[in-house]
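Posting here for the record, re: adenosine-5'-triphosphate.
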Amino acid sequence: MSVLDVSELSVGFASEQGILEVISDLSLSIAPGETLGLVGESGCGKSLTATAIMGLLPKPHGQILGGDIRLLGESLLTSTEAERRQHRGQDMAMVFQEPMTALNPVQPVGRQLAEIYQIHRPNWSTSQIQSRIVSNLKAVGIQDPESRLSAYPHELSGGMRQRIMIAMALSLEPKLLICDEPTTALDVTIQAQVLDLIRNLTREHGTAVLFITHDLGVIAELADRVCVMYGGQRCEERDVEALFRAPLHPYTQGLLDSIPRLDHSPRTRLQTIDGQVPQAGQFPAGCRFRQRCTRASAECEATPPFVDGVACFHPRETHHA
Amino acid sequence: MTAYFIRRMLLVIPTFIGITLLVFVLTRLVPGGPIERMMTEMQLAQEGVSQMQQGPERGGVLNPAQLASLEAYYGFDQPIALAYVRWLGNVLTLDLGRSTRYNEPVWDIIAERLPISLYYGLTTLVLTYLVCIPLGIAKALKHGEGFDHSSSAIVFIGYAVPGYIVGIALLTAFASELEIFPLGGFTSERFEEFTLIEQVQDILWHSVLPLISYMLGSFAVMTFMMKNSLMDQLAQDYVRTALAKGLSFKDAVWKHAVRNSLIPLATHFGNNISVILSGSFLIETVFNINGFGLLGYESLLERDYPVVMGILVISSLLFLIGNILSDLCVAAVDPRVRFE
Ligand SMILES: Nc1ncnc2c1ncn2[C@@H]1O[C@H](COP(=O)(O)OP(=O)(O)OP(=O)(O)O)[C@@H](O)[C@H]1O
Ligand SMILES: [Mg+2]
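Prediction output follows.
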């Protein structure tokens, strides 16, 4: 049974012009121990997908318009708020993009780490919690953890804070870990360390991971499968190797072409996709990529079905590069 | 922290010297200052207008003896630097000169009113925080709902109508018509004869209406500051982190967001304390309270310079203390403030 099952999820925002659908008919599933990479341009709805799964859509405007989200087989949309709270932190946890702001600035990190145990393990003693935190911090590579507990977030570096966030997310060995661009705000060297850490810890515990990024290099390194999103829709979802070897959707091909490669001759211009990303509310009918697509035809005015890992009427088997 | 506090206290000395220097120089420079006053006197004398014709109770005019004592007190015959040092020496020994109006030591006049102003100022301050913080929190949590709108309407009306007008309205309604509260004053006539408990009751009784009038001004600002600050904090990433841990929204608000949202209020504390201590002469007039505001206003009109200077000196000192308290409050709620 898969850990996470998102089926035909639609998410929207209430606005003055009515409800603005931002994510449409998105389906995902992640098996235990599997890492699913979620990629796409800025604004395509990656973070929103994550917050919808966590049940933390911005209130009161963010709304789930349709579909279902199942965690370990149980629907999160029909459960009560109290039941969902039980899952948060315990069965599913999240690491956010900005380690600088994700921690409460006026509380020592030790207290913030202890809180998750106080919520979900109310009968644990303080010393029991303390020793668990210390071993968790050791596991994320923090030296001398005892002395860090009394530190305030501003006294720690970005990399250190993100390690603390990872330790916090993994406190109760959740079945699902959602990482929303966890390394974007960090230096390159720290990025590599943090990625290693996430990979090793989740492999160790067989955690299912939803890893959001727009860095295809990170996906190649970390994910088992990739889901490519465009304009709030899934356009391609396949095994990492197959997708990188032979992307089917023209948008995926465009994305891969825009990565600089060492085996290309140095003077050639970097490929970019022409045109603008459409905003929610201005999506064209049918395939949302069609206005920027070189292969678009009249057919594309209908919504392409998702078949064999791709939602496109003109998937191409071979990658030209 | 302690080191910071000590350094902060030491900084009071040069700041105080700076303020008093400014005040002192002002008395020599401003139009209407003692010197100009003297020249007007002489002109009036030359024009044959006697002081008697203007009536003895017209305080705007000083008699020669008073002028002489003023001159001596401020050292007009001396170089300004020397005069300042001597005056500062007097001030430090609480010798603020004599009031030209009451012919009493200025310190005695101020000392008599200081407790009244401190009582009203501090009570207003405490009550304002006690009401505005919970109200702001409730408004933020119910943002856009009926309670939020109706309380906003009331708060804004209170903000738009000046405190003294509210005072007059309250007096008319609750003191003259309904006779629930006294008509004014700080205490009753027979205050001295009361027991301690009766005295406390009496003071509280007299303060209800003035306190409402005092609070209304700062009320809107503080309530909305609290509300907006909490709404800002609720949108912060760390609140989302807290919710992602499995905390309920209520707990995320009380355990995480509220303390952060108090930081701007703590910063504002110093500002409030000085505004409130200096009082409002209009409210004091309406309620016939002998506080700082009324004293300062009357002294200015009557050109009772020693009293004006004395009030300036004492209020700037209170202002400095208020600022220190404010910094301490900020440091207490925000660990990022380290004052190195
Ligand atoms: N609070 C909100 N109110 C209205 N619209 C919103 C809100 N939050 C997000 N959106 C819309 O939802 C869309 C998806 O946003 P989301 O944050 O999921 O993008 P993303 O793919 O994570 O982008 P990025 O790579 O920049 O993080 C955006 O186009 C944005 O306009
Ligand atoms: Mg995002």
